[in-house]
C-alpha cells in the first residue's frame, strides 16, 4: 500500500519506519501541511495520513478522491478539521486515534501548573534568549 504522510517530523518518520520494517508499505513523508496547494505532492498513493493542523475541507477531499485516495488516516483523536459530511458523501473513510490517555492529559496539565507555580518558564525563556541575569 502506498501511503502519503503529511505534516511529519523526524520523530514521526522514525516510528513509522520502524513499524514498516518489513517494507510492506511504501511510505512518502512530507513536512508540509495537507491543503489544496500541497495535494500536488501526491502521485500514486492510496492512503493519506494527516495530522490535526491539516485542512481537509470539501475542496481538499474532492481533490483527494479524484487522485484515487481511498482512505484518510488521522494521527489525532480530534476530527474537527475534516469535513466529515463531505467525506461521507464521497464514500471516503476517515479513521482516527480512538482517544488519548486521560492520565497523560491530566499529568501534563499538572506539570504545566507546577511550571507556572514555581516560575520555571521565565528562566527557560531567558536561557533561550541568552540573558543570564537570573541569580539562584
TrEMBL record:
* Domain D-isomer specific 2-hydroxyacid dehydrogenase catalytic as annotated: residue spans: 3-109
Question: NAD among the record's keywords?
Answer: yes
Q: Does the keyword Disulfide bond apply?
A: no
Which UniProt keywords are present, listed alphabetically?
A: NAD
> GO molecular function, one example?
oxidoreductase activity, acting on the CH-OH group of donors, NAD or NADP as acceptor
Query: InterPro entries annotated for this entry?
Result: D-isomer_2_OHA_DH_cat_dom, D-LDH-like
Q: What is this protein called?
A: D-isomer specific 2-hydroxyacid dehydrogenase
Organism from which the protein derives? Paraglaciecola psychrophila 170
The top of its lineage is: Bacteria, Pseudomonadati, Pseudomonadota, Gammaproteobacteria, Alteromonadales
